[in-house]
Amino acid sequence: MTKRFKVDLPKIPSDLKQANFHDIYYKEDPYLSNSMITNASIENEQIDKLELSKVTFKNVRLLGSSFRGIDMTDVVFENCDLSNTDFCEGIIHRVTFKDCKLMGLNFSGATLGNVTFDNCFAKMSDFIDARIKQVIFESTTLQGANYSDCELSKVKFERCDLDDVDFSQTALNGIDISTCTFDRITVDMESLEGCIVSSEQAIGFATLLGLKVKD
User: Fold this and answer.
1) 113 within some domain
2) Over the stretch 130-152, which tens digit does the pLDDT of each residue have?
3) Contact by Cβ (8 Å): 92, 112
4) Record's Pfam families (predicted)?
5) Does residue 164 fall inside a structural domain?
């Protein structure tokens, strides 16, 4: 049985000021805080080491943009489209993605802590070499996502589509995927030890091991 754990939600003030993406403060490193951005469309933006603190994005399209080394704390994305956006090597802390399109989103080399993905479409998203702790993926499509060489700790996949996900070189000890669906995933047999699966999934993994299951 997987151990229960708590994911801390973003701490968002009730008096956020309305802003737009170009209100980012550039005195030193780019910075935006205590703001709400709604009904905006940003494409092909490139800002390295952006810092976001206590910011809510709602109905925002942020497409094909690069925010390498981003630092996000207490941030909410709701009904946003972040397809093909680059958060490579970012620090993502107390962040919620709800009802978002995250196709091709790049978290490679990032550190995620206390993050929730709720009812998102994250097909082909990239988590290569990421450190993921106290994170919940719930009712989220992760088809073709890449979690190779990840460090997973207190991570929950609940009712997700994991078809064709790559878990190569990623230990799944204590990770519960029993409520998820997939026809095929890539995983090293030694990394599968301690993974929590359903009885139907167990038969599929037995086949990968060359076992013949008899009813």
Assistant:
1) yes
2) 999 999 999 999 999 999 999 99
3) yes
4) Pentapeptide_4 (PF13599)
5) yes
Nearest-angstrom CA–CA distance, 132 and 165: 16
As a three-state string, the secondary structure of 110-135 is CEEEEEEEECCECCCCECCCCEEEEE
CA angle 44, 82, 168 (to 5 degrees): 110
- Side-chain half-sphere exposure of 139, counting CA atoms within 13 A: 6
Q: Domain with 205 in it: what CATH number? A: 2.160.20.80
Full residue range of the structural domain in which residue 61 is found: 17-209
pTM check: above 0.85: yes
Q: Would you say residue 11 lies in a domain?
A: no
SS (H, E, C) 173-205: CCCECCCCECCCCECCHHHHCCCECCHHHHHHH
pLDDT class of 112 with cuts at 50, 70, 90: very high
How far is residue 211 from each of residues 1, 173, 208, measured CA to CA in Å? Answer: 25, 22, 7
The Cα–Cα gap between 148 and 151 comes to 9
Residue 2 falls inside a structural domain: no
Q: Report how far apart, in Å, the C-alpha atoms of 122 and of each of 63, 125, 153 are.
A: 14, 6, 20
**C-alpha atoms less than 13 angstroms from C-alpha of 4 in its C-beta half-sphere:** 0
- The three-point CA angle 134-34-68 to 5° equals 55
